[in-house]
Backbone:
């Protein structure tokens, strides 16, 4: 057909005012009116409020003189438009396309609608004599078509998809005999639909005119659907020099569907400038942008055509790979969106009803009356055409392309690379080979997936993160990775709706965690894709702009201003001087202030380019988990043959043993951190460290007995500290046992001294069986508490179990041996945070 179907998906606000009193019930607006046998189909968009209504007619020319391509529809549309003008209907506007034409006109009343329908019937059914007055107008329109040639004969397939009118190189004005033959075949039942949009008087006027008029002849039978391109058809590559800037490229991906509703619905998603296709293309390392998206409904199904421009580049060894990667991505995206889109069977009526202009409403309504489903088993066929401009030459004006039916065009169809082999043989062949490689790369999973099904849970959880964590951070940019996670979560939350997206920041993982419940009537797979898209798009694809990075940096700096964070940041700088974020992944104020927006954006790119791991805790079944993994993997950019590895782990360097001071605001409680480094490459030592910390921690733990009044039989007022705990921080790259104390400033030194004495006693073998048993019970309680939290289960699944199943707990002798070798006073790093003294300015 002629003009591409447009997906009007704009919401229309309707104000409804309740009126008092009874009255006759309003009948619902009509969508069709019976006009009797032997008349064209009449579709209706009945509505009030338009100052004028509209009448539209659509005609399919599919299969009529196919060698003349769009000339048939353009000529017939011009014929009818000129005949209507001769009868005083000068506002009628006809538009011809590749395989059909349309005409629409405004009408002021029911009588006006009847007059237009009568005139349309006469103009379409009257034979074309040798001296028809409309022939000069037809010749002018055909000549104008010749001035809009196809850039290359291989683009015939794209024109068939979009329905747009292009010259094919043989646009001679038709003779009266040719035009009459085309008119007789096209202007008959089975190929014509009429529509009226407006109030009841306009609808009734159009219906009455059709009903009282004579029966219409039957048009030529519609041709059998043309065969779709083979699923494994190679991409077509042609020379676009003269059409594009030197070194540029443009590719068109077409997707044919058996259902026209599916094609038009998918075009809305694909054409969203902030949608998945545009975002995924923007995430590539080659500048590429969506030029146009056209979704069309045809008499034998639907078609979507996506045109993407690739920015000009100098000739380089990877030029073919860059173009092929973008083309393979777009082809995959079309297959996903068209395959997954949910389109109502009455989409045509919905679009017509939503059109704000009555002319658009009538035109769409008539168009969809002719649209039909393809009688085929296959649901989808994807095609790819790539145009490349020679980077060595300046563009020259293209010569007139040959007719699609000419020997030159036949040769191009038989040899898809025909013209490319004339000027760009090496690049053309390379692109075809690279498209195959890129397609294989997009099909091969990139993300490492770990899934679990917890049937019946209220939410589904998706954690996507880089296992590289903070490996690459130094003291100069400590906190840059955390800024990436916070920025990505902030970006995702702005468009996630009722889904919740949180940053995941740990020394061994940087990413985002998305979770949420199903919406009304949302399938488990749809929920999985929605949450996975939210997480993966933000962390693996979308560009993080300066504003969202600035917000993330501000939030982290505010967090690092917290009293405990200030002490922990100082401890990290002492335990791992070159890599403080290995201990505190939030980084340091100095690192965050030093890292520019560009550096944070580069860190985001580095995390995306490295290995990525996703954990999915599904709440329905394994298919739901698989849908989430596939949705995540789809967003991850990749190139053939790339290796995804974390940067080499640099040496941590020795800890700077000693005592460090941190100033706190006046009036704050003093606090201290006592840390003992643990060998990172010794799993047994790391396990023993967790048990030792558990023995120290808790209400009845070793610290409580050493510091807390009643716990050691003293009065509460005699406690050396107001709070205390022990834990392992910095696992897995810079683990350390850290004792945290809070006390009045005057008692902090005594609390630190008592804690050091306790650690020394443990080093000399003071740990007992009851201490080990209490540690075992505490660790079991902590594991149970964590297991009750779905967030913790998702993180545990992402990390995996670092210890083999059933690994024995360390014995008392093993714990004493660990304490003897590790809890040395000369290995202690102490951070003492004290409030600044109050200054009294009174005399």
Residues:
């Amino acid at each position: 057909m002629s003009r591409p179907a447009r997906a009007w998906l704009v919401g229309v606000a309707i104000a409804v005012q309740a009126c008092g009193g009874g009255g006759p019930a309003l009948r619902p607006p009509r969508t069709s009116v019976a006009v009797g046998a032997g008349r064209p189909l009449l579709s209706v968009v009945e509505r009030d409020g338009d100052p004028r209504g509209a009448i539209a007619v659509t005609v399919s020319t599919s299969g009529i003189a196919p060698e003349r391509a769009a000339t048939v529809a353009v000529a017939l549309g011009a014929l009818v438009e000129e005949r209507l003008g001769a009868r005083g209907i000068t506002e009628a506007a006809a538009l011809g396309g590749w395989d059909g034409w349309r005409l629409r006109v405004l009408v002021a009343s029911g009588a006006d609608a009847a007059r237009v329908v009568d005139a349309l019937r006469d103009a379409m059914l009257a034979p074309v004599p040798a001296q028809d007055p409309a022939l000069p107008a037809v010749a002018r329109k055909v000549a104008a078509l010749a001035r809009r040639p196809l850039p290359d004969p291989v683009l015939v397939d794209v024109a068939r998809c979009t329905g747009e009118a292009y010259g094919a190189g043989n646009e001679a004005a038709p003779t009266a005999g040719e035009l009459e033959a085309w008119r007789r075949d096209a202007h008959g039942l089975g190929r014509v639909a009429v529509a009226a949009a407006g109030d009841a008087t306009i609808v009734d006027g159009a219906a009455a005119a059709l009903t009282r008029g004579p029966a219409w002849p039957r048009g030529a039978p519609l041709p059998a659907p043309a065969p779709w391109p083979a699923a494994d058809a190679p991409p077509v590559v042609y020379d676009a020099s003269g059409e594009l800037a030197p070194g540029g490229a443009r590719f068109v991906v077409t997707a044919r569907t058996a259902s026209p509703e599916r094609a038009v619905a998918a075009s809305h998603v694909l054409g969203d400038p902030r949608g998945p296709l545009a975002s995924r293309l923007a995430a590539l390392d080659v500048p590429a942008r969506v030029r146009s998206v056209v979704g069309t409904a045809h008499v034998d199904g639907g078609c979507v055509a996506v045109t993407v421009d690739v920015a000009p580049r100098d000739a380089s060894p990877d030029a073919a790979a860059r173009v092929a990667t973008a083309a393979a991505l777009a082809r995959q995206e079309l297959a996903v969106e068209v395959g997954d889109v949910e389109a109502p069977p009455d989409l045509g009526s919905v679009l017509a009803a939503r059109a704000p202009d009555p002319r658009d409403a009538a035109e769409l309504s008539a168009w969809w009356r002719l649209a039909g489903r393809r009688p085929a088993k296959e649901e989808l066929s994807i095609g790819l055409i790539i145009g490349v401009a020679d980077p060595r030459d300046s563009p020259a004006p293209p010569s007139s392309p040959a007719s699609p039916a000419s020997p030159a065009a036949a040769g191009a169809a038989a040899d898809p690379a025909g013209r490319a082999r004339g000027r760009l043989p090496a690049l053309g062949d390379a692109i075809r080979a690279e498209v195959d490689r890129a397609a294989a790369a997009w099909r091969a999973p990139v993300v490492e997936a770990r899934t679990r099904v917890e049937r019946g849970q209220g939410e589904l959880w998706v954690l996507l993160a880089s296992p590289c964590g903070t490996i690459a951070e130094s003291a100069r940019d400590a906190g840059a990775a955390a800024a990436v996670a916070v920025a990505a979560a902030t970006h995702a939350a702005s468009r996630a709706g009722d889904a919740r997206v949180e940053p995941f920041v740990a020394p061994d993982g940087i990413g985002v965690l998305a979770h949420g419940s199903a919406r009304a009537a949302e399938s488990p797979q749809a929920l999985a894709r929605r949450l996975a898209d939210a997480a993966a798009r933000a962390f693996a694809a979308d560009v993080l702009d300066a504003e969202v990075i600035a917000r993330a940096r501000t939030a982290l700096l505010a967090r690092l201003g917290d009293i405990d964070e200030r002490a922990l940041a100082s401890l990290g700088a002492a335990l791992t001087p070159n890599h403080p974020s290995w201990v505190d992944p939030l980084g340091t104020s100095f690192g965050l202030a030093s890292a520019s927006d560009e550096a944070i954006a580069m860190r985001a790119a580095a995390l995306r380019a490295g290995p990525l791991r996703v954990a999915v805790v599904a709440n329905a079944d394994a298919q739901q988990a698989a849908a989430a993994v596939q949705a995540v993997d789809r967003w991850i950019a990749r190139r053939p043959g790339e290796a995804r590895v974390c940067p080499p782990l640099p040496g941590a360097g020795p800890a700077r043993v000693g005592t460090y001071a941190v100033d706190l605001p006046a009036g704050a409680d003093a606090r201290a951190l006592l840390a003992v480094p643990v060998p990172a490459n010794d799993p047994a030592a790391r396990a023993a460290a967790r048990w030792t910390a558990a023995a120290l921690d808790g209400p009845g733990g070793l610290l409580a007995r050493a510091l807390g009044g009643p716990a050691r039989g003293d009065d509460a007022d005699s406690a050396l500290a107001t709070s205390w705990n022990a834990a392992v921080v910095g696992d897995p790259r810079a683990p350390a046992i850290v004792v945290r104390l809070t006390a009045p400033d005057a008692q902090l030194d005594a609390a630190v001294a008592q804690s050091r004495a306790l650690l020394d006693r443990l080093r000399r073998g003071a740990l007992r069986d009851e201490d080990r048993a209490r540690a075992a019970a505490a660790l079991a309680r902590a594991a149970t508490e964590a297991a009750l939290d779905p967030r913790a289960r998702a993180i545990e699944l992402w990390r995996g179990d670092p210890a083999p199943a059933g690994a024995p707990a360390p014995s008392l002798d093993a714990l004493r041996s660990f304490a003897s070798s590790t809890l040395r006073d000369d290995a202690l790093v102490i951070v003492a945070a004290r409030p600044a003294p109050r200054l009294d300015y009174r005399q």
In short: The chain has 27 helices and 20 strands. The radius of gyration is 36 Å.
